[in-house]
Amino acid sequence: MAELLGHGGLPVHLAGGRRRTAERLASTVPGAIAAPLETVALEAQLVILATSLDVSRREIAPRIHEHLAGKVVVDLSNPAPADLSGSAHDSAAEMLAEHFPKSSIVKALNCVSARRLRMLAHGGPAPTVPIAGDDLAAKRCVTYVLLRLGLDVADAGPLHNSRWIEGLAELLRRLGSEEGLGDAVGFRLLRLDQVDRTHAGRAAIVPADRYTFGKEQGQ
Length: 219
Fold this sequence. Notes:
InterPro entries: NAD(P)-bd_dom_sf, STEAP_metalloreductase. With 219 residues, the chain is of the alpha/beta class. Helix content is 37%, strand content 19%. The chain contains nine helices and nine strands. A five-stranded mixed sheet has the order 3-4-5-6-7, with helices on both faces. Strands 1-2 form a two-stranded parallel sheet. Helix 4 links the parallel strand 3 and strand 4. The protein is globular and about 45 Å long.
């Protein structure tokens, strides 16, 4: 993800753990800067949590949730069944929102593997990224960034619809591991009602550049 952001000309601040992965990654991404977690949280307007749900809740949120008040937080995590056991929520994103109560949580990018992102950074085909969130302005911000990076975006509605996005990620994982498709498999949404039949009966499917489903009332 950092490589794709760097290629897109966006400023990138990286925070890592004890293994100093942020420093090593920053040295390979044009314009990227490695900094302590608290510094990144204070300076950034949009924070992408490329960490597991457990790490985000137990290690990251207690340190920076106040720094992220009023900011956009993108959740990439895909929960294990045990993560949701005993929870009142059906998605990792909803659980994470409890730990960042003053931030706008947007579910996104959990359906795109690291390999697919690297392929896109080097001219590969763009998958569709479903996003979900309750703050429309936050979703517009995330959509702007993703479109600038060359990704296709589909608005999946409010944050509680994250359960369906996380379910899609599980389907892609199973297709990759159990059906032998590997981690290069991706998802692309097509608008089948936008079929051009004007050329001698031949049909051309138009990609869903602006497709929206689960549209909120009044949007």
